[in-house]
């Protein structure tokens, strides 16, 4: 095989994988969701509900969160609100105790053991048939439970995920990129839900049947793993776009990078512990979703490198490949310029897409190296 033919094969294989990952798979799952949608048999359902707010050192936001949660429209005798504090060392616990007379319960987990472990222990104390998990900085609409609960009238549904809307208060470049990325992800989630089942949820707003909740290991990314835990029980996780919550985006690319590295590293651990679920003969289309949406997405940095290298080699043979190489260089330069201007506190919304694309893929690369080295996350640092 000549250098030209080898480089050409690598180029087009890499390009094919990238196009499938970002365009082909979303279009495929969307088409399946329309051609043979799995509907949810919704009905009247008013069970006891427990809302668990997991927190670590959230003294700045916990009061507003509790006021927001108390405003949720649901019968008081059927609603339990619990803050699960993972060994907070600031005034978080004290503030929560001030709400005790209004029905807010505090569960304090000593030892700073991590979000997932703390959630597990909080669930043991939950009285609700349905458990709604929330973050301390997430704001809900008063009627948030109204669209969520009817989904549980369908016995095949184990989890219902709401729709997260990001608010970019400071008009930060990375915040703009987050909003665009999340809009793309929300489209995919809606399609996956209708085609088969969600493979991951936003930790800001998701509800689970108490009877189906199985404690997860401390280093798990519970927002991701919960869907696999339920799918093993033949239960679906579905997306409910009418259940809306809001959260403020990160304003610094460094904090967004750290958050994504942690989440991806945890997700890689979860995938490695559930390799059998990647077998389509066992888990059907759910395996295709895991491979396409997670495995290939996290492998994108590899194919970006091989595409760039092959393009560089092929420029000696064709102007077409020289143009492709120039386009890649320009794209990465735009991302670098956006990052530099962010440091200068200059916002460039037009360059938010290349900046966030590069940030997301660098975080995948960093998370992969951490995973290979055996580094695992259990504790979490809210990057706000």
How are strands sequenced across the largest beta sheet?
3-2-1-4-7-6-8-5
Measured on Cα atoms, how large is the radius of gyration?
22 Å
Report low-confidence residues grouped into runs of 5 or more.
none
Helix/strand class:
alpha/beta
For the biggest sheet, the summary is: 8 strands, mixed
The count of β-strands is 8
How is this structure best described in words?
The structure is a single chain. By secondary structure, the protein is α/β, with parallel strands linked by helices. Helix content is 51%, strand content 15%. Helix 1 (3-35) packs across helix 6, helix 1 crosses helix 10 and helix 11 packs across helix 12 (319-343). The chain is globular, with a radius of gyration of 22 Å. The relative contact order is 0.14. The model has no long low-confidence stretch (mean pLDDT 93).
